[in-house]
Amino acid sequence: MARNVPSSSISAFCALAVLLLLLLPLQSTAGGRHNYNDALRKSILFFEGQRSGGLPSDQRLRWRRDSALHDGSAAGVDLTGGYYDAGDNIKFGFPMAFTITMLSWSIIDFGRNMGPELGNAVKAVKWGTDYLLKATARPGVVFVQVGDPYSDHNCWERPEDMDTLRTVYKIDGSHPGSDVAGETAAALASASIVFRSRDPAYSRLLLNRAVRVFEFADRHRGAYSNSLYHAVCPFYCDVNGYQDELLWAAAWLHKASRRRLYREYIVRNEVVLRAGDTINEFGWDNKHAGINVLISKEVLMGRAEYFESFKRNADGFICTILPGISHPQVQYSPGGLIFKAGGSNMQHVTSLSFLLLAYSNYLSHANKVVPCGETTATPALLKRLARRQVDYILGDNPLGMSYMVGYGARYPLRIHHRASSLPSVAAHPARIGCKAGSRYFLSPNPNPNVLVGAVVGGPNNTDAFPDSRPFFQETEPTTYINAPLVGLLAFFSAHA
Predict the structure, then answer these.
(1) How far is CA 55 from the centre of its chain?
(2) Distance (Å, whole) CA 152 – CA 163
(3) Three-state DSSP state, 91
(4) pLDDT tens digits along 273-296
(5) What pLDDT, on the 0 to 100 scale, is given for residue 325?
(6) What are 375's strand-pairing partners?
(7) CA distance 467 to 475
(8) What's the mean pLDDT in 413-430?
């Protein structure tokens, strides 16, 4: 996406404006506080709209039906289930695993605030982990993708109808992928914590599998983009390298198992695996800020002085995110939204805001603050900044638009999402072919199926938003936008 770089004077003005916004009382455009409970419920419901495979009897988004029931058969393995990551019909393992890690972290840190939605959040995690267990069932192999992206992207069809190639892609000892394997290990390890008291046997299965997958990732080092370039690039190409995923996985394994082995691995590999690189990046491709925040909790709790450098990195991350402190990689729109270069900006907004909130809680419990030059980042300031981002998503923005489908009076109606934009099977039982769906893609009409809870890529750096399917960077929802938002909404639903 083309992006205009503002002059230093405009940047300074925007930074001051955003800082003032943080100091103002936060109210919705309707004149009252947002209904975070409603937004939380919808943010979790969205994952049911992304399900692949045979749908359960308690499926709540009823316009979706069974799909991709033979995934994996070409490779002699059952790979049904899991999630479509966005508005297409591919199952990409890298972002799916990150989604499960962030859903798990949301529950670990904020599950106590989820009330009756906790059960649905746990179900959302299990839908993903059941699939990841299938994808890692063979020792020394991880199945990392189902579906040929070029074939899929050449069609606009419902997942229930798809007849595109369901090619299966894998990594193994000869074709490594430490990035996707590391993230898969992190997902399994973090989920094992979620199920530790709820289902101890399932929790042990997840943790044991996480250990095995991590050992494979570490033993056979390499980026999956090199092994599977034509399948994963440019869609989920690993630009950042695999080193961060190895540290990320080790951090989650340490948290889940408390084994000294992983603590020593982290300390020994901190420099080799570049823990201090790009400390203000966090998402499916780059885990650095997340690693530093996650590990810093140990330091702030007074349990792990040997991780002190990670806390310094986490403090540095906080200082680069604060408005009013100039940093070339993190900017704010005139309306106060975090903006980073690249597509689907809301993925940065929700992931970075989650880290602000998590670190704020860790600092609060330790009675600490973060010094940032002449500014002091208190836990309260970090919570305010995170909440400001959430409220922007829910409608406190220059357009007065909620970027969560189905929340508020005004939200995107023409999202870039095949299943949502095509008539449901109930409304149109006959098959809609590959190219027959093009007229729905190009139609100016609203999507016939409301993908409740979906958060789209969002506005550009001037707060402008085109509610139009072809503008996929702005109008396509993804699971990894919603996953960290679940934790944010849970906290603010209990601390409105």
Answers:
(1) 23
(2) 9
(3) strand
(4) 676 677 888 999 999 999 999 999
(5) 72
(6) 372
(7) 7
(8) 98
Q: Which helix (H) or strand (E) holds 264?
A: helix 260-269
Looking at the DSSP bridge assignments, the partners of residue 338 are: 332
Read off the tokens for 383: 């919570």
Question: Full-prediction pTM beyond 0.90?
Answer: yes
* 7-28 pLDDT tens trace: 333 344 444 444 555 544 333 3
Residue ranges of the alpha helices (H) in 322-399? 346-366, 379-394
**Which tokens in the block code for residue 456?**
């789209």
CA distances from residue 220 to 33, 232, 285, 358 in whole angstroms, order as listed: 51, 19, 19, 33
CA distance 391 to 36: 9
Asked which of 303-307, 379-383, 411-415, 454-458 is least confident by mean pLDDT, the reply is 303-307
Q: Using CA atoms, how far apart are residues 443 and 421, in angstroms rounded to an integer?
A: 9
Show the tokens assigned to 386.
Answer: 């995170």
Q: Percentage of residues in the chain with pLDDT exceeding 70?
A: 92
The separation between CA 452 and the C-alpha centre of its own chain, rounded to angstroms, equals 17
**C-alpha–C-alpha distance, residues 455 and 437, integer Å:** 23
**What's the pLDDT tens digit per position in 435-469?**
999 999 999 999 999 999 999 999 999 999 999 99
Q: Tell me, what's the pLDDT at 276? A: 63
- CB-neighbour burial class of residue 173 (10 A; exposed 0-12, middle 13-18, buried 19+): exposed
- Please provide the DSSP assignment of 160-221 as one string: TT--S---EEEEETTB--HHHHHHHHHHHHHHHHHTTTT-HHHHHHHHHHHHHHHHHHHHS-
Catalytic residue numbers, as ranges: 88, 416, 467, 476
Domains along the chain with CATH numbers: 27-494 (1.50.10.10)
Rounded Cα–Cα distance for residues 231 and 237 (Å): 9
Exposure string for 117-128, b = 16+ CB within 10 A, e = fewer: bbebbbebbbbb
In whole angstroms, what is the distance from residue 327 CA to residue 189 CA? 34
